[in-house]
Write a structure and sequence with these properties.
alpha/beta, 9 helices, about 25% strand, four-stranded antiparallel beta sheet, six-stranded mixed beta sheet, Rossmann fold
Length: about 260
Amino acid sequence: MMKSPLISIRNLDFSYNGDHQRVVNDLSLELTDGSITAILGPNGAGKTTLVHLLLGMLKPLSGEIHLKGKPLSDYSRGELSTHIAFVPQIEHTAFDFSVQEYVLMGRAPHLKLLQTPTDEDQEKVSQQLKSLDLDHLGPRSVLELSGGERQMVLIARALAQEPQLLLLDEPTTHLDLSNKGRILGTLRKLAANGVTVVFTSHDPNAAASTAQHLVLMRGGKVHASGNLDEVLTAERLSEIYGIPIQVVRVGSQSIVLLENDSG
């Protein structure tokens, strides 16, 4: 029997200024449960807007989003937070929280109004930090973290929610190769442990090394979607980015290159 999608989107429209200049335009898509999906596209393609719509932070002009077969609008904010967690591209923290305290905020969806975190919540946070090899950072201030450490801590806080779906917006932007590799490796581990991962990116090679499924967006629409090997082609990438692109195989890995037309 065919498994139903975790997320189903039908004929979604959205604009930031009423019915004009639609950022998402008649978009339909299904996101597979238990896998990693990368959403690629140029600036202005609608990737981040789509993520915010999936989080319920934005309301569509028309169309529907279903989570586990139920309309997203039927979930309360608290219910959504127990199913979906979000890792933003950048988050500025003004307060001097320790890493342990910061990640503990991810337990909020599981607490009643005005309830303080329990010993069990503290233990779940400690286990989460340990599973991501971040336990040594627990007492440190989040204001002292490097870019790579901060991104890992954001992931830890999101996972403290115990979500079924983890959404990440450009998770490797501004990171060096070492930290980029660490983040992408972490996403692969999470998927292997049953977390459904969806991330946006400008980097086709991040998608090629990590995702099983790929969504290509341009102008607020899905240009193509499906299994990585079927969608990650030179022709399709050249179309969405508007420049000549090559896709070559190195062993079992696809590598995306700008076409050298000088010769």
